[in-house]
Write a structure and sequence with these properties.
- It contains 16 helices and 21 strands.
- It is α/β, with parallel strands linked by helices.
- It folds into two domains: about 300 residues, Zn peptidases (Aminopeptidase, 3-Layer(aba) Sandwich); about 130 residues, Alpha-Beta Plaits.
- Strands 10, 12, 14, 15, 16, 17 and 19 form a seven-stranded mixed beta sheet that branches. It has a six-stranded mixed beta sheet with strand order 1-2-7-3-8-20, with helices on both faces.
- Helix 13 links the parallel strand 15 and strand 16.
- It is globular.
Length: about 500
């Protein structure tokens, strides 16, 4: 829970907001149309959106096209071979001399329904978060206005369908209030972001004029843990690798072969611990070499940003943190190496007294400006070799395993690099002013912790990117029981209206 001081800070921020007419009009519209907004949002969330589920992905794209059309924006479904469709829309403003593009993605992370308290594509409204014993509120009997602390649970409730719903509602309020637009507005909704945007660069390059804009506003990610609005001027890149190490050809009885047959689970554990120190610093040689230094403005923004680390530790039951005494926002400006999953044989009731045959770890590495993804993977491969492993990119044959005491199959790579827009640019300063006029004091960060395909966007269409997220920090995105706090959706509607009218 937030300390009283942080709660007071959020209230002060709210009190200082609403000097923006478009945001104020959007707030008024929302307050009189909450039930209709939630109903449309629930219908949208009910469409499964895993990227590999092509039929349902198309249903999502068509649903967004219909939502745009209902608001007077002619949709265009942009197709590309083997790619999920991109949904495009445009508002041309007479006399406008610039174009603002707002982006979100409609695909969601893969999931295991068994992990969810309620089905991921059957949206459920709760009075509070599940962790705070939030009770189910039947949608058909919900009382409006909703408690701002209530939450809607479903896959992509926050990442990234909430921003899409906020944009649509912002358009409703802009039309109803007669709010004047000052820029041409474009909308782009991607269907492969959770699959590392495999085709986005090609799609943008093939339709450069269609997607060109003076700035892309990326509506993805969470706000500050203090609940203050956050604006990020960059995002970390990402690359992933899977590492498999090998023991005996088949599983062996641990009594008959223990102390003799190498155990790949133990081998993998040693390999992984060689990669990081106990305080979280990556030990791969030259891992941090090449990081682009922060400007004075960026350093000042980090110094001025609130540090809710102590409260987060309580919320997450953490007795210590990596990188201490540095605060979270500082550490997000560095590369990271994360073990995102491990597997070897079986555990729990299915466990057997065996020496496993293989062990696998999946690793993601978050990149910062100045660091190339291919170089980072090459440095990791060299580290694995230095631990005595013969590294191979495919399943090793018998002769390979017999010729080397330690073999590691490493696959993956790909992803994209980090980018960072200067906070001193006129458009950057304007975005800050507009967001402050809608949401009050803003937390400004040079680089957001998560990864968004900013590099391929900037390269393909020659633009700047700035991220303006709306989701609550504890939304469980990429995991089970994903949710959106209703006040975050309401705030997001006002924010989107202010940005579209900028």
């Amino acid at each position: 829970m937030l300390r009283p001081a942080l709660t007071l800070l959020a209230l002060v921020s709210l009190a200082q907001a609403q000097t923006n007419p478009a945001a104020a009009a959007a707030g008024q519209w929302r307050r009189t149309h909450e039930k209709a907004i939630v109903s449309e949002f629930v219908e949208f969330l009910s469409i499964p959106n895993i990227g590999t589920d092509r039929p349902n992905i198309r249903r999502n794209a068509e649903a967004i096209g219909k939502m745009l059309q209902q608001r007077g924006v002619t949709p265009q479904i942009v197709e590309f071979p083997d790619a999920n469709p991109v949904v495009f829309g445009e508002i041309r403003t007479p006399g406008a001399n610039r174009t603002i593009l707002v982006y979100a993605h409609y695909d969601g992370q893969p999931l295991d329904p068994k992990e969810w308290v309620t089905p991921p594509f059957a949206p459920v409204l709760r009075s509070r978060s599940i962790e705070k014993d939030g009770q189910v509120i039947p949608l058909e009997s919900a009382t409006y206005p909703l408690d701002p602390e209530s939450r809607l649970y479903a896959r992509s409730a926050s990442d990234d369908k909430a921003p899409i719903m906020a944009m649509m509602t912002a358009l409703d309020s802009i039309r109803a209030s007669g709010t004047r637009l000052h820029s041409n507005i474009k909308f782009v909704f991607e269907g492969e972001e959770e699959g590392s945007s495999a085709h986005l660069g090609q799609i943008l390059a093939a339709h450069k004029a269609l997607f060109s804009a003076d700035v892309w506003l990326i509506c993805d990610g969470p706000v500050s843990q203090t609940r203050q609005q956050l604006v990020a001027f960059g995002a970390r890149g990402v690359t992933t690798v899977d590492i498999t190490v090998y023991g005996p050809r088949r599983e062996l009885h641990s009594g008959h072969y223990g102390n003799w047959a190498p155990n790949p689970a133990m081998m993998l554990a040693r390999l992984l611990t060689s990669m990081k120190s106990e305080d979280g610093r990556v030990l791969v040689d030259h891992f941090y070499d090449g990081i682009a230094p922060l400007s004075d403005t960026e350093k000042r923004a980090i110094a001025e940003a609130p540090a809710p680390d102590a409260e987060l530790m309580k919320e997450l039951w953490l007795g210590a943190t990596d990188g201490a005494p540095k605060k979270l926002i500082e550490l997000l400006q560095l590369l990271s190496l994360n073990i995102r999953g491990m597997a070897s044989s079986r555990t729990g009731a299915q466990a057997s007294n065996v020496i496993p045959s293989t062990a696998t770890a999946s690793i993601d590495m978050r990149l910062v400006k100045g660091i190339d993804r291919d170089t980072t993977v090459a440095r990791l491969l060299e580290h694995i070799r230095k631990q005595g492993y013969f590294v191979i990119g495919s399943e090793p044959a018998a002769e390979v395993r017999l010729a080397h005491p330690k073999v590691a199959r490493v696959t993956g790579g790909g992803g994209y690099n980090a980018v960072r827009t200067s906070m001193d640019l006129p458009i950057s300063q304007e975005v800050i002013r507009v967001v402050e006029s809608a949401r009050g004091p803003v937390v400004k960060v040079p680089t957001m912790g998560g990864s968004v395909p900013l590099e391929m966007i900037e390269k393909a269409v020659g633009t700047h990117t700035i991220t303006v997220p709306i989701a609550n920090h504890d939304n469980s995105q990429h995991s089970f029981n994903e949710n959106i706090r209703m006040q975050n959706l309401w705030d997001g509607i006002e924010l989107m209206a202010a940005l579209i009218a900028m």
